[in-house]
Design a protein that fits this description.
The protein has 952 residues and is α/β, with parallel strands linked by helices. The chain contains 39 helices and 30 strands. Its cofactor is FAD.
Length: 952
């Protein structure tokens, strides 16, 4: 490490804890990726937790003239969130918000995800104006810094237009709150030279009629190329000019510490329709007509776009027909309408349908208000980017470019773009976009592994820039930001005069040029083909990963080690180094680090696949890596499977010893003793907590009778058979007793199979990378349940959700297997009299339940039992992951770090459907979590038969 960075670290540790100053080479490489096709490896990563820490970090870098880059979620596509110097990222502490004026405004810190802001506003019927496609992942800091827009945002509702005020930190560490008169007064005193320079720049710009006209023309379109020069002609107060220049500045002028938005209406009444026209000219004529109406969104898709999703499930049949017929002329419009009332919406539907009919659509799905139908239509548009990513050749990357044309020239622009694809052999490229704004995205795949391929891309970008900026006088970046990707072309679009304005702004605000150098302003004419990201083959499971980062918000290890995107990134580099052998010491170091960061602390829940545009489950790769065992390991696994009952009894003995010791020495001494033993064993001995379950012995088998009652096969999981409630539990009955109580109240005869001690669904073996033993145990259990259920005639209840998920994946479909919430909803609740309790409860929805689409049902059942149900935010998987809560408790702690603060003061109980998850939830919440069946048993009684009343 260079001496200046070591000196920087020494200074930073005076104000920041050392664990939030990252210098580990593997972590530096992992954080050196964003969603773009560039890669730079930072020298230092600083995780700031407070405003004071951010000010201190920025000021220190300024004083030492060390370049600094800010990152929010890292979903940027143009290379604006990477650095080869210092990368400053935010901890989860930057997620505060305040809804103001009955939802008319909202104050947001930069770390809150865009979709979360909209959830806060939903009760008021409002939302923030920007609606980027990545809104479920990208953060407010990035949305504002890139002036991101989206499908319905247009040019009227972006961050620039809906800004009410902000707090910022400039390069010298100065803090300014534009909504605080005292802060403004102080800033006018300390930075009068800057404000005077901005005022002078604005006056000269307004006096230059040709330049002013050019600026107005540029921002008639969507435009994020360069700085927001419209601030110079839209405002006179230099404070207003400065805060609007910050929008879209991509972290090159300062750090946005918070932002206040004027919100927009989020109409409750919506309708969507899909219309196909014979050619692009007709399609664009329809767009021109629609631009004169109040439609909310119009998405254009060319013929290649439609063909790319033709084989996806649920597509309208005519899309496949167009693809089979090889119709290269057709294009489609996906249209969304919003109404303040149902009547207004239906009036719009009639009006817009009449206008569309004039252009003679060849195929259509007429406007529908049915939510599933609308979601299916929008899945066509949302599936275009993934469709290209899923079929790209290994080693290539997916590039999505983002331009805007005057709407009156849209048809010829599309034709010319399509011709460039032909000229440069991008035959897989497709075009789609926000047609009302003339904003087109085009997606193609590109390899950067040879100089010839790099030159092809460079020549193509030269041709695109000429077409867009010169021939059509459009925007080279409509909503994705300039970044490194378009920095060499800013002057081409804006001309020398406009570019000099931008250079002057940069020099005025960032006098030492330390903030995100190379982004927006870049002297290199080849910056767009420098620092290109290699995407080498690593594993078929992850080779399709485009490193977009959509997976990261739901990853339980994201605050501890690596996210799925980062795991894929690091593993790709490991595999590359293995092939090239260019740096063996680095390879050895990275392998060692990856074992903990990548493999040991991965919960392998598969939630990442739910968010991934190309359905990658990084957990599958991790499980495959865990299969690389020694022969001894395989032998142990096989023995464990064959003697599962013995193993379970041994575990129960261990729980019993721990419980007795706890009773004798007390909680405090037990913690000290257990921690010491764990350290001495090299962390082989599991972590003990006061919420450790007590040992129980499983239920006795129960054979079917000749009764006419409804029957159910109950399979108590191995956790339920051996793990009872914790020592200080509110209800000391083991789960299987509670389950039997609920089932009998509902009038069920319960069948419990023989030989349960030896049974297991196979999940523990699968997660540890022993698929053969896992399959063997699953097959044994399947045969047992097949016989017990009378060859699939009776339902099977399993009391733990991961076991259900594993069984449904591996067992024959004729077996009807239910987890507790499902079974209660379908068979039990209607047979009980329930008195909802008033005391609040916490509810945890396990990752397996989420993947099965049960979140809504789980909430519904819990709310049927309790008046106040709290589902904590920012908690997806609990990170206990089988037994990792014992072996790697730090994963569980990191995943549940937001939980304790969200437990209401008067709440004493939490519920879920996985016994092991409940241990970790109890430890990290301060209250007892247990199975939902405890709550159902507590608030219900068997329905009393109706009695006949005689009337005289």
């Amino acid at each position: 490490m260079e001496r200046r960075y070591q000196n920087l670290i020494n200074r930073l540790t005076m104000t920041l804890p050392s664990e939030r100053i990252i210098t580990d080479p593997t972590l530096l490489f992992a954080y050196g990726t964003d969603a773009s096709f560039y890669r730079m490896t930072p020298q230092v990563i600083v995780q700031v937790d407070t405003l004071d820490e951010a000010i201190s970090t920025i000021k220190t870098c300024y004083q030492m003239a060390i370049p600094l880059t800010f990152r929010a979620a890292g979903t940027s596509l143009s290379g604006q969130a990477i650095s080869d110097s210092v990368l400053m990222i935010l901890t989860d502490s930057w997620r505060e918000y305040e809804v103001k004026d009955e939802g008319a405004k909202i104050w947001l810190q930069p770390g809150i995800i865009g979709a979360e802001a909209n959830r806060r506003l939903a009760p008021f019927g409002r939302k923030i104006g920007p609606d980027p496609a990545s809104i479920n992942t990208c953060k407010i800091g990035g949305i504002a810094a890139n002036n991101a827009s989206g499908m319905c945002c247009g040019t009227a509702k972006n961050s620039y237009r809906t800004l009410a005020g902000m707090s910022m930190i400039l390069a010298d560490g100065t803090y300014l709150d534009t909504l605080n008169p005292e802060s403004i007064r102080q800033f006018r005193t300390t930075h009068s030279a800057l404000l005077n320079a901005l005022s002078s720049l604005a006056m000269s710009c307004k006096d230059n009629q040709a330049l002013s006209d050019k600026i107005r023309h540029k921002y008639r379109l969507k435009n994020t190329t360069g700085y927001s020069l419209n601030a110079l002609i839209d405002f006179s107060d230099p404070i207003d000019i400065l805060q609007h220049l910050m929008i879209g500045s991509e972290g090159t002028l300062g750090f946005i510490a918070d932002i206040t938005y004027n919100t927009v209406v989020d109409h409750a009444h919506k309708a969507s329709g899909l219309f196909v026209f014979r050619d692009i000219e007709t399609t664009c004529l329809a767009v021109s007509e629609l631009s004169k109406t109040s439609v909310a969104a119009v998405e254009l898709m060319d013929s290649r776009s439609l063909a790319s999703v033709a084989d996806k499930p649920g597509m309208p049949p005519f899309i496949q027909t167009l693809s089979q017929q090889g119709d290269n002329e057709a294009a489609a419009l996906l249209i969304e309408l919003h109404g303040a009332s149902e009547q207004q919406l239906y009036s719009q539907i009639i009006e817009i349908t009449e206008k569309i009919t004039k252009f003679a659509p060849t195929h259509e799905v007429g406007f529908s208000v049915d939510k599933p139908t609308c979601e299916q239509l929008w899945s066509i548009r949302k599936g275009l980017f993934p469709a290209v990513g899923a079929v790209r050749e290994t080693g290539t990357t997916v590039i999505i470019e983002d331009v805007a044309f005057p709407i009156e020239q849209l048809a010829s622009a599309v034709r010319d773009l399509q011709q460039l694809f032909v000229d440069f052999d991008y035959h897989e490229a497709l075009i789609f976009g926000h047609a009302l704004a003339g904003n087109l995205h085009f997606v193609f795949t590109q390899a950067f592994d040879t100089q010839r391929e790099v030159k092809r891309y460079s020549d193509f970008m030269d041709a695109v820039s000429q077409l867009v900026a010169i021939d059509y006088k459009g925007s080279l970046k409509a909503e994705h930001g300039t970044g490194r990707n378009m920095a060499p072309f800013v002057e081409m679009e804006w001309g020398r005069e406009g570019y000099q304005l931008m250079q002057a702004i940069k020099r005025m605000v960032d006098t030492r040029g330390i903030l995100n150098p190379g982004v927006i302003i870049n002297d290199s004419r080849s910056a767009h083909i420098e620092n290109l990201k290699e995407m080498p083959a690593a594993d078929p499971i992850i080779d399709a990963c485009i490193e977009c980062g959509f997976c990261e918000p739901v990853c339980p290890s994201r605050k501890l080690s690596l996210t799925p995107r980062q795991r894929n990134t690091v593993y790709r580099e490991i595999r590359r180094l293995e092939r090239t052998q260019e740096d063996r010491s680095r390879l050895a170091e990275m392998r060692k680090a990856f074992q903990y960061f990548g493999v040991d602390t991965c919960a392998a829940t598969g939630l990442c696949a739910e968010r991934c545009p190309v359905d990658i489950d990084t957990g599958d790769m991790v499980r495959r890596l865990r299969q690389e065992h020694t022969q001894f390991g395989e032998t142990i696994a096989r023995w464990s499977g064959e003697h599962f009952g013995t193993l379970a009894r041994t575990a129960a003995v261990g729980l019993g010893i721990a419980d007795r010791t706890h009773s004798i020495v007390g909680t405090s001494s037990m913690k000290t003793m257990a921690s010491g033993l764990r350290r001495a064993s090299g962390k082989i001995i599991p972590q003990w907590t006061p919420h450790m379950p007590r040992a129980v012995s499983g239920p006795e088998p129960q054979k079917p009778s000749n009764s006419t009652k409804n029957k159910v096969v109950y399979y108590p999981s191995c956790a339920a058979r051996n793990m009872g409630p914790e020592k200080h539990a509110a209800d000391h009955r083991p789960l299987y007793e509670v389950t039997l109580s609920v089932l009998r109240k509902a009038g069920y005869e319960v069948i419990i199979p023989d030989n349960l001690r030896e049974q297991c669904c196979g999940m523990p073996f699968k997660t540890k990378g022993f698929p053969v033993t896992a399959d063997q145990k699953a097959a044994e259990l399947e045969e047992l349940l097949w016989q017990a259920s009378e060859r699939g005639q009776l339902p099977v209840l399993m009391d733990t959700s991961p076991c259900v998920s594993m069984s449904k994946d591996t067992m024959r479909s004729e077996l009807s297997i239910f987890e507790p919430f499902e079974f209660v909803a379908k068979f039990v609740l209607s047979q009980l009299d329930v008195t909802r309790q008033s005391e609040p409860v916490m509810l945890h929805i396990t990752c397996t339940s989420r993947k099965r689409g049960l979140a809504g049902l789980i909430q519904e059942i819990t709310e049927a039992c309790c008046e106040h149900v709290v589902i904590p935010e920012d908690v997806s998987c609990c990170g206990f992951s089988g037994d990792k809560g014992f072996t790697h408790p730090e994963l569980n702690t990191a995943a549940l770090s937001p939980l304790r603060a969200q437990v209401p003061e008067n709440c004493r109980e939490g519920y879920s459907n996985s016994r092991t998850c409940e241990i970790g939830l109890s430890e990290n919440s301060g209250i007892e979590y247990r199975s939902i069946l405890y709550l159902i048993d507590k608030v219900s009684r068997a329905k009393q038969p109706e009695t006949e009343v005689s009337v005289f």
